Structure formats: structure tokens, C-alpha cells
């Protein structure tokens, strides 16, 4: 780091006890209103996380109208119901629905990103998203289809293109984000994970092939009557599943940490850049301990799990460069007009289901 | 006139300007960068309090004020229904006692929804679904339960995947017709016998059992026919299944599952999906118990009307229970308390003549 470059941490001031109250009231009102309040609950939850995320002592803010979110949820509800019953009308209808979803996906991603960005602000300046439909179709429809034909070889490239698309089309005020990470960097991360997982998988398969007789296994699958064989088989399966689960969660944590770091460390916003230093073993510990917390408390400690994750992620992310926010400007007039026109638009709905 | 300090953001630049605000019951005013801003109190929007975060005042021109404490300003504003709601919400959220109270209320509300609201809703929807659609659903389910064998691999290393359970029935046509005729005779005695179709199947792995599927299909396995000592026992079991058909239990249960899934998905936009699977699994059990009781009541009333001794129902159920089979019939398993359930069937006294058309083949 050269002289004159300062590092500004991102603070998270959310408290588990405080969030528990918000979470439980959200849950209660959502249940008694048959899910209608869930739209208001979402705004309150996001506001809590946004307003408690501070840079330079100033928090973010979330402005979405709960009614817009409710509209989106009602549409999703109707669509889901139609899908659930379409099978009874004709066996081909669900396929038609799936195709519609596939081609609507890019549009839905753009809508969700735009909705979220325009309703997020920092220091009175709104964010914006301006992704194009053509590129979205390529990234979210063509690339996934190619993914199948290339046996997954283009997956890292796809992740790179998707991250870049999502990031570079975001603006803070009038200033756009830039991401400089190359496809090569993504291939390095996924390549490492693949080699590791394949190595462990091969070793394990060899071990199993040596120790378990194929006929016994087949018999216990087909028989299913003999209690003893069934119990044995269940035990083996349980061990298998546990191990693979750990492998999946472990490699997931590694990929999450490394890809997040790669993206953030190569991102700039005007003169600002970011420094992300997530660590895979921290993430793995957080995933597993959060899972245990949630299971052992029958879901009651979910707020604590959310807060812990957010606290860790923000503690590992900071801004570098001169945090001179006076430089950032927005176009207030145009902004207000755009959102005003948007409000009248029937498509001003939240299509993200987070 | 009140005074307080705040950070002012004009909405054009990200710069924070420290300002001193003065306000009275009509207006709010401050000076920033040599310009004096005045807004009517009615035009500004004070964001509801949330946790201990800084308070935000949204200005009508897109600017905003952020301050630590604005209780004085809030006192100036006329309370509306909305502000009172948010005020109470914030109080609820921030007192552990209230939050725990809310937790108990949540559990109660969840329990009430699961036990009363969703079943009632599912019932309404079930009766609104056209019978033709329900029939189609039933046909599909039956097709899925019928045995299909998929073979994969070449001659040397062949393995087959077996889907479904039922095999074709081994009962001869005369026997099938006889049983159908008896059911028809008993049905004729009832004022409210639902439309149905009796299907004979070999039970395969399922063994002795009888099911009601959506659309009035009633499946009877050969094994159950073999287990029965008299035909009347079979008829008694079938009346229980017709109870399910009459009250559209199978469809209602399917709908209850789908509806509770949807409700949970809507509610748990704010919770993890992990925790939401548990209650769904738990309620499946409860529903079926209540439905079994209803079907039992229908069977008992029908048998009495046709002068079939209800104890026959108890007799075959007890025999089913003793069957050492891998799959326990639904009619037995969902009732943990079989002796109590069978009591009314054992105690029922009849003094009338058996309906003609029913074969008394008591040993």
C-alpha cells in the first residue's frame, strides 16, 4: 500500500438480541396475516441490516415500498399455483412453464437487480442498475445451455461473466462499478477445488470398493425386507452422506471465500477500491456452527446466525483509497423522475425472493 | 421551537453537511452552504424507528437528514394511525418480555393456522375442484402406484429398477363382481353413498390393504381379501374407505400439504428454509388422524344402517394389526390408540335383518 492511501473499515453494528425482536415480530405478523405482512417484514429486515452497516459512521438505507414487494409475491404465488395444477390438465404444461421461466429468467434478474439497487442508498445517493437484456440472455440462458454441452468446462467463465455483468451495471449515484478480474483467476479457484474433491472422492471410492461386497449392497437395495441388511446399509449410507455433505460444504466455503475475495479485490468505484480477506476455514466454521445453532434451537437462533454471518463478512471487507465522498454525485432530478415513472409502471414489483 | 443537530445529505452529492435544525409545530428549517431550507412539517417523512440505528428524515426534494435522537421532533408531529403502529411495533421488538410473548403468540398462531385455517381452506378448495379434474388426478396416482419395471444395462450386467407396488389382481372375475355387487347393495342402503370405482390389485410389497385415491377410486388388495374371514369384513373396510371418498380426504390432504408449503414459503422469506420443514412434517400426521376418525364414524353409521355387525370391522382391523408385514396399512398405523378406536364397533348392538344382497358367510 503506497503512502497516502488509507483504509476505511466497514462496520456492522447489528446486535443479535435486537434483531431477534424484529425477526420474531416479523414472523408473528407474517403468520397471522397469512403471509401478507411478509412484504413489510422484508423491508424492515433489510432496513435493519442496511442501517447498521456503516462506512465512515454513516449507514446505508433501504427504501422499497412493501406494496411493490407484495405484488411480486402475489404474482409468484399465482404462478406457483398454476404450475402445481398444470400437471393435472396436461402432462406437457409443466414443461411449458419451465421454458417460460428459463426465458423470463434474464428479465427477472434485471428487474430484481434494478429494484434492489434503486431502493438502496448511501449518504442520500441512490444506487442504480442498468443491465441490458441482450447480454443477460447470453449470460443466463446461452451460457447455462453451453455449460451442459461443454460438460461444465465453461463454469468458471460463466461465473466470471455473471459477476462482471451484475457488478459493472451497478452505479452509485452516477459512478459505475468496475471489475478487473480475468477468467483465468476464476479457473484457478475452481480448478483447485475440483482437483481436491476428485482426489478425496477417488480415495474414498477405492476404499469402499475394497471393503464392501457389491452383491451385498445390491441385495440390500433390492431386498429391503431383511431388517439387519437394511440397518447395515442405512449406517453405511449415513456415513457416506455425512462425509459428502462435509465435502460439499467445505468446498462451497472455499469457493465462496475465494470468489468473493477475487471479485471485491478487483473492483473499483471511482477512486475507491476494496479489500476483501474472507478465509475459507472461517466460513466453514460459520456455516457449520450456524447450522448447529439453528437445528438445536429449532430455528429460534436463526437471527443470531444471520448476524454472525453479516458481522464476519463486513469485518473482512474494507475500502481503500481516499474516501472522499464529496466526489460522488447523483442526478437528483433525473433520479426522482425515473423512480416516479417507475412507480406508475405495473412492473414496479420486486421479483427477488430473498 | 426546538433545536437539534443532524447530518444533511442533499441527494445530489454524497457529502454530509452538519446542520442545526430548528422546528416548530408547522415548519422545519436549517441552513446549509449558505442556503436556508424550509419545509412544512406535513411534507417531511420521519422513518419509523428501527433498532438503535440513526433516525432518518426524508425531505420532499430527495434530500435526507440523519440524527441520533429526534424524539423532540416526533413529539411535534400529529400522531397518525401509521406512526402509532410503527411506534408500538418498535416497542414490541425491543422488549425481551414482549418478544417472548410474541414468540408464544407466534407458536399459537402457527398451531392455529396449521390445525384449523389450512384444513378449512383446503376443504373449500377441494369441494371447488371439478370432479373430472379430481378423477384425472386419481388416475395418475393409480398409474404411478401400479408396478413398472425399468431395465437398464446389457445382457451380462443387467439391473432393473422397480417403480410402484401393485401387481395385477389374481382374483377371478366372478369373485370381483361378487364383491362389487355386495358393495353396491350396501351403498344402496345409504342416503349419501359417494360415487366410486372399486379397483382390484395384487398388493405386492404393500400386502393386505385398502386405499381411497382422489376421484373416488378405491383400491383393494388381494391380500386383504384373503385375510378376511367373511366378505362382510371386506365390505366393512370398504365403507371406511368410502368415508374418505365422501369427504374427499385424499385430495384435501394433498391440498393441505401444498397450501402449508406455500404459506411456509411466504412466511419464511424471513426465516431459514431449514426450520420450515419440521412443522410441515409434523402436521401430516395430525391431519390423517382426524380424517381416520371421520371415516370410522361414516363406516359405523353405514354398517348400522345396513345391519352389518360393526364388530366385523374391528375383527379385520385387529387381524391386520397382527400381520407381520413391512408396510403397516395406513388404516392401522395412523391410529396409535386402536383399542379405544375399535370400542364403538365392538359395542354396537343390532337387532335387524341383514340387507339382502349381502352374503352372510360367518363361520
End-to-end separation of chain B in angstroms reads 100 Å
- Structural classification of chain B: alpha+beta
Tally of individual helices of chain A: 12
Radius of gyration of chain B: 33 Å
Please estimate the helix content of chain A: 55-70%
Major sheet of chain B: order of its strands? 4-3-2-1-7-6-5
List how many beta strands of chain B DSSP finds.
13
Helix content of chain B: 40-55%
Which overall shape of chain B is indicated by the principal axes computed on the Cα atoms?
elongated
Mean pLDDT, all residues of chain A: 81
Compressed to H and E, one letter per element, the order of chain B equals EEEEEEEHHHHEEEHEEEHHHHHHH
Low-pLDDT runs of 5+ residues of chain B are 270-283
The helix/strand order of chain A is EHHEEHHEEHHEEHHHEEHHEH
Distance N to C terminus of chain A: 37 Å
Proportion of residues in β-strands of chain A: 5-15%
Structurally, the number of domains of chain B stands at 2
Biggest sheet of chain A: strands, sense, closure?
A: 10 strands, antiparallel, barrel
What is the typical, i.e. mean, pLDDT of chain B? Answer: 79
Total DSSP helices of chain B: 12
Biggest sheet overview of chain B: 7 strands, antiparallel
Given helix and strand content, the structural type of chain A is alpha+beta
Explain the layout of strands and helices:
The complex is a heterodimer of chains A (354) and B (363).
Chain A: E1 7-12, H1 16-32, H2 38-51, E2 53-55, E3 58-62, H3 66-89, H4 93-118, E4 120-122, E5 125-129, H5 133-149, H6 155-168, E6 170-172, E7 175-179, H7 183-211, H8 214-223, H9 227-265, E8 267-269, E9 272-276, H10 280-296, H11 302-315, E10 317-320, H12 332-344
Antiparallel strand pairs in A: 1-2, 1-10, 2-3, 3-4, 4-5, 5-6, 6-7, 7-8, 8-9, 9-10
Helix pairs in contact in A: 1-2, 1-11, 2-3, 4-5, 5-6, 6-7, 7-9, 9-10, 10-11
Chain B: E1 2-9, E2 17-23, E3 27-32, E4 35-40, E5 45-46, E6 55-58, E7 64-67, H1 71-76, H2 81-93, H3 96-128, H4 131-145, E8 148-152, E9 159-163, E10 167-168, H5 173-188, E11 197-202, E12 210-212, E13 217-221, H6 222-227, H7 231-246, H8 249-267, H9 273-305, H10 311-322, H11 330-333, H12 338-347
Parallel strand pairs in B: 11-13
Antiparallel strand pairs in B: 1-2, 1-7, 2-3, 3-4, 5-6, 6-7, 8-9, 10-11, 12-13
Amino acid at each position: 500500500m503506497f503512502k497516502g492511501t488509507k483504509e476505511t473499515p466497514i462496520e456492522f453494528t447489528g446486535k443479535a438480541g435486537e434483531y431477534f425482536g424484529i425477526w420474531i415480530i416479523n414472523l408473528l405478523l407474517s403468520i397471522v396475516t397469512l403471509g401478507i405482512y411478509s412484504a413489510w417484514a422484508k423491508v424492515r429486515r433489510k432496513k435493519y441490516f442496511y442501517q447498521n452497516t456503516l462506512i465512515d459512521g454513516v449507514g446505508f438505507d433501504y427504501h422499497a415500498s412493501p406494496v411493490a414487494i407484495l405484488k411480486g409475491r402475489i404474482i409468484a404465488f399465482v404462478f406457483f399455483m398454476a404450475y402445481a395444477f398444470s400437471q393435472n390438465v396436461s402432462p406437457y404444461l409443466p414443461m411449458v412453464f419451465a421454458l417460460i421461466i428459463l426465458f423470463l429468467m434474464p428479465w427477472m434478474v434485471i428487474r430484481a437487480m434494478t429494484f434492489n439497487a434503486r431502493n438502496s442508498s448511501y449518504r442520500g445517493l441512490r444506487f442504480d442498475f442498468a443491465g441490458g437484456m441482450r447480454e443477460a440472455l447470453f449470460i443466463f440462458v446461452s451460457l447455462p445451455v453451453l455449460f451442459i454441452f461443454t460438460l461444465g468446462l465453461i463454469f468458471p467463465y460463466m461465473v466470471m461473466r455473471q459477476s462482471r455483468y451484475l457488478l459493472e451495471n451497478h452505479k452509485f449515484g452516477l459512478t459505475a462499478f468496475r471489475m478487473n478480474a480475468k477468467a483465468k483467476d476464476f479457473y484457478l479457484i475452481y480448478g483447485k477445488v475440483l482437483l481436491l474433491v476428485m482426489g478425496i472422492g477417488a480415495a474414498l471410492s477405492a476404499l469402499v470398493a475394497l471393503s464392501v461386497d457389491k452383491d451385498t449392497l445390491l441385495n440390500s437395495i433390492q431386498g429391503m425386507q431383511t431388517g439387519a441388511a437394511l440397518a447395515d446399509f442405512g449406517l453405511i449410507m449415513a456415513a457416506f452422506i455425512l462425509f459428502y455433505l462435509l465435502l460439499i460444504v467445505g468446498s462451497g466455503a472455499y469457493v465462496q471465500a475465494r470468489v468473493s475475495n477475487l471479485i471485491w479485490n478487483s473492483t473499483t468505484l471511482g477512486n475507491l477500491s476494496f479489500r476483501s480477506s474472507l478465509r475459507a476455514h472461517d466460513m466453514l466454521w460459520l456455516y457449520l456452527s450456524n447450522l448447529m445453532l439453528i437445528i438445536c434451537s429449532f430455528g429460534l437462533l436463526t437471527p443470531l446466525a444471520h448476524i454472525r454471518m453479516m458481522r464476519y463478512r463486513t469485518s473482512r471487507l474494507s475500502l481503500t483509497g481516499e474516501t472522499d465522498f464529496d466526489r460522488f454525485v447523483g442526478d437528483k432530478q433525473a433520479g426522482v423522475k425515473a423512480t416516479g415513472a417507475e412507480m406508475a409502471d405495473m412492473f414496479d414489483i420486486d421479483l427477488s425472493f430473498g | 421551537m426546538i433545536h437539534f443537530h443532524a447530518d444533511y445529505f442533499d441527494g445530489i452529492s454524497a457529502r454530509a453537511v452538519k446542520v442545526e435544525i430548528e422546528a416548530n409545530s408547522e415548519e422545519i428549517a436549517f441552513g446549509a452552504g449558505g442556503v436556508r431550507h424550509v419545509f412544512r412539517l406535513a411534507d417531511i417523512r420521519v422513518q419509523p424507528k428501527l433498532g438503535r440505528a440513526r433516525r432518518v428524515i426524508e425531505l420532499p426534494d430527495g434530500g435526507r437528514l440523519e440524527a441520533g435522537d429526534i424524539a423532540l421532533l416526533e413529539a411535534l408531529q400529529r400522531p397518525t394511525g401509521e406512526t402509532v403502529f410503527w411506534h408500538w411495533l418498535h416497542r414490541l421488538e425491543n422488549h425481551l418480555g414482549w418478544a417472548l410473548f410474541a414468540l408464544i403468540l407466534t407458536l399459537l398462531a402457527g398451531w392455529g393456522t396449521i390445525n384449523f385455517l389450512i384444513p378449512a381452506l383446503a376443504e373449500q378448495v377441494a369441494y371447488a375442484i371439478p370432479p373430472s379434474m379430481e378423477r384425472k388426478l386419481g388416475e395418475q396416482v393409480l398409474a404411478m402406484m401400479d408396478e413398472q419395471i425399468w431395465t437398464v444395462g446389457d445382457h451380462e450386467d443387467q439391473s432393473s429398477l422397480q417403480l410402484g407396488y401393485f401387481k395385477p389382481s389374481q382374483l377371478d372375475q366372478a369373485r370381483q363382481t361378487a364383491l362389487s355387487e355386495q358393495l353396491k347393495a350396501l351403498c344402496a342402503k345409504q342416503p349419501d353413498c359417494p360415487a366410486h370405482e372399486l379397483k382390484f390389485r395384487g398388493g405386492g410389497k404393500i400386502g393386505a390393504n385398502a386405499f381411497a385415491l382422489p376421484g373416488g377410486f378405491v383400491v383393494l388388495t388381494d391380500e386383504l381379501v384373503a385375510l378376511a374371514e367373511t366378505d362382510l369384513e371386506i365390505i366393512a373396510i370398504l365403507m371406511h374407505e368410502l368415508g374418505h371418498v365422501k369427504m374427499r380426504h385424499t385430495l384435501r390432504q394433498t391440498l393441505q400439504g401444498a397450501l402449508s408449503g406455500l404459506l411456509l414459503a411466504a412466511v419464511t422469506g424471513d426465516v431459514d428454509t431449514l426450520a420450515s420443514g419440521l412443522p410441515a412434517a409434523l402436521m401430516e400426521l395430525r391431519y390423517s388422524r382426524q380424517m381416520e376418525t371421520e371415516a370410522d364414524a361414516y363406516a359405523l353409521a353405514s354398517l348400522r344402517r345396513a345391519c352389518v355387525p360393526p364388530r366385523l370391522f374391528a375383527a379385520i382391523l385387529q387381524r391386520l394389526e397382527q400381520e407381520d408385514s413391512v408396510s403397516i396399512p395406513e388404516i392401522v398405523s395412523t391410529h396409535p390408540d386402536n383399542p379405544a378406536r375399535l370400542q364403538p364397533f365392538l359395542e354396537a348392538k343390532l337387532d335387524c335383518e341383514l340387507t339382502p344382497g349381502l352374503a352372510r358367510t360367518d363361520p
